[in-house]
Structure formats: C-alpha cells, structure tokens
Amino acid sequence: MKVHHLNCVQIESPMGSAIGHCLLIEHNQGLILIDAGIGLNETRAPFQTLGKELIDLTGFQFDEERTAYRQIERLGLDPAQVSDIVISHLDPDHIGGLADFPQARIHLSQEEYQAFVQGNDRYLPYQMAHKPDLALYPTNDSTWLGLSARKIDLPFEIYLIPLFGHTLGHCGVSVKQSEKWLFYAGDAYYLRAELENENHPVDQLATIRAVDNKQRLDALEKVRSLIKNHGNQLFYFGYHDPSEF
C-alpha cells in the first residue's frame, strides 16, 4: 500500500486559509480516494455549479490542477483506476470530485445518505446526479481503539468511525498502514489547535455549521481522548488545517 496526500480544496476567507486534505491509496487492486474535494466541472463553471452565495460564504478558490483527477494524472496514475471512494460526509467541498470518477463505488454511512436524500439544504443534489454505486454502512459492527466502528468492504483494514454532529452521519476514517494507523478526522475539527484549546475562536464557526452541536462536541471529545490514549499509534489529521498537510 502506498498513500498520497492531496490538497483538493483551497479556501481564502477573513478567518484565514483552509485546505481540503484528501488521501489517495494505491494498492494491488487499484486506487482508492478518501474524500474527493472540488471537481473538474466546478472549477470550470463554479458559479453555475456551486453558486455565488456559497462561493462568497466559503471563499473557495478554483484551480483545475488542484482537483483529485488532475493530481492523480500528475502522479503518473490513471484516474479510471479509482475503484472506490470513501466519504466522511456529503458537504459540497468533500464530494464535488465524485462525478470525475463515475465508475467508483462510494462508501459512506447510512445516516449521511439519508440526510442527503431528505433534502437538507447544506447539500447539493447535483453532486450525486450521476447515480454512483453506493455502499452504505448502517450499523457499528466493530470497535477500533475503543471507538465504535464500521468495517469498510475493501481489501485491507479500513473503518468508518462515527463522529456525528457536524452532519447527521459524519464519520472519520481509519486505515492500517504498516505498524501505525492513519486516522482522518474529517470535519470533527477544523484546526488542530481545537484539540488543545476548547475555547478556540473557530469553535464559533464549527457550532454554526453543526447539525447537532452537542453531538459535535461529543465527537470532538472522542478525538481528543483517542489522541491522548493512542497518539503513539496514529498519524492523524483533519480536512481543513493547512499545517497538517
């Protein structure tokens, strides 16, 4: 297994810069993405796809070379070999790239998909309009380092870790790599500084963006405890903090 770290989003806002930290995993049966960032169509026609209101609100910057598709090409790999994409949640900046890999099976929690199809306005239905093959995970069937987990149907050890609150089905992702685990916390925190500072100013934004803020805070506490108790076994990062890339 070989893991590539990709920045598939760039955000510039009054609060500062942010990124979209995706993973590309090479293994002997193909390529797997963890989250997909902003896609080709969105970089080519951002106002027609994402819309001016969302762009102004977030501060998205657009560059086709930043898409997962183009970065995979630059690595000398074939984007058509992306067989699976594991999704933390279905917010627009995490799944715009799905349509660039129409052959890929999409793995996510049942709760997140249900929230999407029920029409929550934080989601953009067109991002799933290509009707991808879905693998939905409805129940916790495993434990991982003391946390409830859902084993993903892939040919190596990888789990969805429920960290609900930011959205109704938001999950982290853990991947076994050699002697350590990669732990991707998604949007359970925006900045690593939140893990040490419970009153960090970005908490105000996280509160506003949370579907269930109590659940979000519980999830953040799970991440803190995980790192405190098992940090020596982990390489951990979230989606948005540039310092972690």
UniProtKB/TrEMBL annotation:
Pfam family, one: Lactamase_B
Protein family: Belongs to the metallo-beta-lactamase superfamily.
Domain of life of the native organism: Bacteria
The entry's keywords: Hydrolase, Metal-binding, Zinc
Cross-referenced CDD domains: metallo-hydrolase-like_MBL-fold (cd07742)
A Gene Ontology molecular function term of the record: hydrolase activity
Name by which UniProt lists this protein: MBL fold hydrolase
InterPro entries reported in the protein's UniProt record: MBL_superfamily_lactonases (IPR051013), Metallo-B-lactamas (IPR001279), RibonucZ/Hydroxyglut_hydro (IPR036866)
PANTHER family the record matches: BLR3078 PROTEIN, QUORUM-QUENCHING LACTONASE YTNP-RELATED-RELATED
